[in-house]
Amino acid sequence: MIVTLNPLTPLTVVGRSIDRLWLEVQTAYQTRGWVYARYTDVFVDLQQVPVVYDVSVSPVAGATGTPAAVSGATQAPGTSAGILSGLTEHAHEIFRDGLALGNRPNVFSKVGDSITVSPAFLTAIGQGRYNLAGFGYLQDVIDYYSEDWARTHNSFDNYSLAAQGGWWASRVVSNGYGDSDYCREDETPLECEYR
Prior knowledge:
Shape: elongated
Oligomer: single chain
Mean pLDDT: 81
Radius of gyration: 20 Å
């Protein structure tokens, strides 16, 4: 879950990523989460804050670019290595099973309706037509998901078999709505896209 904090919200730093880009914090209401250090004023010596997240450790033998938590703490959110927060051991198990089945970690699927198929949604990124302005740290994420072909293009620009204009959410998981050039009659558009 992503939460927006009000400016000047007091936070207690309880941990950090090894690269000091992310801080694990706690609010006065005992809510814990991660904040990007760049957007905080820190009044403690970060050398004294325990490292609870190491972006150089991989949870999957042979996988790269997939950091792991250390000391049993929750994972830090995305950095230039493409990290997601809140990954459980079960999520890691799903990831490992996917790799064993031949899934590619640097490919994603787009699922949805007319917004998802609109050329204004991610397509320009896949075609190299974007300006990150002050968000240059996202370039590594774009590079990672652009290096492999999904089916027709890289993941950002790929034509999705699980997204069409005018679809309700139920169509994605209902038989009979898949693209007949690619999908079997016995599979939903979502199953077809994943296959």
